[in-house]
């Protein structure tokens, strides 16, 4: 349901805050908890103003313990609340992995629906902001492999708010990844009030005929620039923003791939076992006979994200994506 | 620290009252209820081991020796309270409301064994160690936020105190003053590793000091001590007094699981001595004899009735229709996303259904 009235120019991080505020206003059972989310409004200001507006009972500064944040959120979620837990950086989520893997994601299944965990885990992810070590990880594939959790990644302010509201409304755990290097990179008209972007649906950002480029989150900007460059050289690009990584928008991918027969997949996460591998399998299942060239992947490497003096070499960039486009066109 | 956290006892191994303050509360009714529930879970436990030996259920986790800890603590909880057990605490969940059949189904590898009984807030057993302390804290925190007077009880062993989640659970509960009872059954061994290799501390109760919460150590084989001291902690929690860490000192007679051989790591003759000296069920029998409450005919009849009840539950378990394959697919999410739906359809088609 949409109750949106006007629009307002917002950055992605402001859209996150607005999404939280919208849901907290509407539902008393929505609470926010995490490290520094209260008085400080979050290290990225994603919860800015919420503490003053909703009070310390609903915007909760927790002890510095990620497993504790997720574990207590599970207890809150099975007992009537809809916690939105912030993990300060995606690379800090590892202490909570056990809670997510062994409890949050399988309580519904273990109890045949008697207990459920309507919880959102928000985390800024990705490299490119010259952050200290461990602050730049992009390990979404650890969670797309995990049964029982949906994984969403908005690439712009409109989707950030709409997907966050959809995630909070979702009856199951959702991992909501925020591309930190686009937190403030641009503003966009975002509807005021409530609206949703459906989980599981990607978006076509450019209509084209020659090659499909598939990306998400922080890599969308890189993909857009590479596509624009390709178009200047007469290559028309069908550009897909996945928005949800589990479950993938199978139909959108198949439709595009069957039209172009050529695919480039872009993500900053490591290559082996990454989403690119999953998408290739999906294309194999749906569109094998339509393919005109082997699928190219432009990804981070099977290395830890390096310290930031090397992060621009690690991250896929416009040139690497453009080269891959040319490669599949020339095959 | 052992002096600071003395082991609280109300009735000793000989069945003699050692804490006179409680004498008037040790009624025949309470005594018989404790005895009945403890005998019931002991007989269940022995049946569980036997069924595993016969291949009629899967690996079974016995708790024999810990009956007073589990029954006494579960009886101290109220109707609307929450319980978060481990895989060795079905004595507590059976006392709190799980049916015998449900518990047998759990050990037969059935999801139905995780279903809470109608109107009861019993979480499925935690298998990773100490993770459940946080769930209990979260659920009790929710009760506090809703403004109810309900509390949580969470079970864990001595080994669990080494895990990070133990400390995170106590800390969160302390910081937010949550109505949760951290009920530790210290049976001396985490599988094979004895307590002195688990921690340098002589007591588990003293760990409460680090979180500025209440901590007590009780004789976990004294059903009265467990019941009354847990009850006191629950009352405190209900009245805004926050969490309590209870260390119930006890002993598991048998193996860690039916796949374990305890003779590899400890002298089982200690178990034989303990059966005669500190056994929780025998202690109640001795107490009843001392207090002229014991009736041989009553005891014999009780054992027959409980045995029949357990046999009936075994029958029910074994007559349960086969597990439903749809259950594997249909409860991962509220509604199946396409990958699960496709996998399910392909699998079903391959089975010829």
Protein described:
The complex is a heterodimer of chains A (331) and B (353). Chain A is α/β, with parallel strands linked by helices. Chain A has two domains: 7-191, Rossmann fold, CATH 3.40.50; 203-330, Rossmann fold. Helices cover 35% and strands 19% of the residues of chain A. Chain A has a seven-stranded mixed beta sheet, sandwiched between helices. In chain A, strands 9-11-10-13-14 form a five-stranded mixed beta sheet, sandwiched between helices. A two-stranded antiparallel ribbon of chain A has the order 1-8. Chain A starts with 6 loop residues before the first strand and ends with a helix. With 353 residues, chain B is an alpha/beta fold. Chain B has two domains: 7-322, Rossmann fold (3-Layer(aba) Sandwich); 324-353, no CATH class. In chain B, the strands form two sheets. Chain B has a seven-stranded parallel beta sheet with strand order 1-8-9-5-4-2-3, sandwiched between helices. In chain B, α2 packs parallel to α3 (90-96), α2 packs parallel to α8 and α4 (100-107) crosses α11 (296-318). The radius of gyration of chain B is 21 Å and the shape is globular. The mean pLDDT of chain B is 97. Chain A binds chain B through residues 57, 62-63, 65, 67-68, 70-81, 95, 98-99, 102-103, 106-116, 147-148, 150, 171-172, 200, 246-247, 250, and chain B through 82, 111-112, 114-116, 123-124, 126-128, 131, 133-143, 145-146, 152, 164-165, 168-169, 171-172, 175, 327, 331-334, 337-339.
List the helices and strands and how they pair.
The complex is a heterodimer of chains A (331) and B (353).
Chain A: E1 7-10, H1 12-26, E2 30-34, H2 50-54, E3 59-61, H3 66-78, E4 82-86, H4 97-104, H5 107-110, E5 120-125, H6 141-144, E6 150-152, H7 157-169, E7 174-179, E8 188-191, E9 203-206, E10 211-215, H8 219-232, E11 237-241, E12 244-246, H9 250-260, E13 263-267, H10 275-287, E14 296-299, H11 311-314, H12 318-330
Parallel strand pairs in A: 2-3, 2-4, 4-5, 5-7, 6-7, 10-11, 10-13, 13-14
Antiparallel strand pairs in A: 1-8, 6-12, 9-11
Chain B: E1 7-8, H1 28-53, H2 67-75, E2 82-84, H3 90-96, H4 100-107, E3 121-122, H5 132-146, E4 152-157, H6 164-175, E5 180-186, E6 189-190, E7 193-194, H7 195-198, E8 214-219, H8 223-238, E9 244-249, H9 269-277, H10 280-290, H11 296-318, H12 326-330, H13 338-351
Parallel strand pairs in B: 1-8, 2-3, 2-4, 4-5, 5-9, 8-9
Antiparallel strand pairs in B: 6-7
Helix pairs in contact in B: 1-2, 1-3, 1-10, 1-11, 2-3, 2-8, 4-11, 5-6
